[in-house]
Amino acid sequence: MRFHFSLLLLVMAGLAVAFVPLPVPAITPQERTFEIDAHQFAYSPSELKVNTGDTITIQLVSADVVHGLYVYGYDISVEADPGQSATLTFVADKPGSFRFRCNITCGAMHPFMIGKLNVGSNSWLYRSIGLAALAVFGVTVSKKPKA
Ligand SMILES: [Cu+2]
């Protein structure tokens, strides 16, 4: 009898492992395309948000003169001729916040032609929630009156 009971537990545990959803949903990497309008002396949009593992295609469209786009950390770049567009495709495999900037001298305010690429990892969010929960738990425990 005891054997049957533990076998039942084993089967239930197996079913639970197989079917209970994970607390952290796996993020399926996506293919994302961003069209960035480059003009003296700004990008539009100037901030991109993606998830780690996404395949990113940046379509850089130059509205006036030759502009470039160089992404720090990834060390990749693309440049678009006046009135033309150029594409850059890469896998956002490094989480973090990366600046990008124009790497073609395009005029007086060229050094200020910058933007930001945010490669997010949702596990950070869950970890911070977990840490916050632990902190609350810790505070609650420490407030417990001593016998
Ligand atoms: Cu420039």
What does this structure look like?
- This protein has 147 residues and is α+β, with helices and mostly antiparallel strands.
- The protein has a domain at 31-126: Immunoglobulin-like, CATH 2.60.40.420.
- Helix content is 27%, strand content 37%.
- The protein has helices at 2-19, 122-142; strands at residues 31-39, 42-44, 47-51, 55-62, 67-71, 76-80, 85-91, 96-101, 114-120.
- A five-stranded mixed beta sheet has the order 3-9-8-5-6, with no helix packed on it. Strands 2-1-4-7 form a four-stranded mixed beta sheet, with no helix packed on it.
- The radius of gyration is 25 Å and the shape is elongated.
- Copper (II) ion (CU) binds at residues 67, 102, 104, 106, 110, 113.
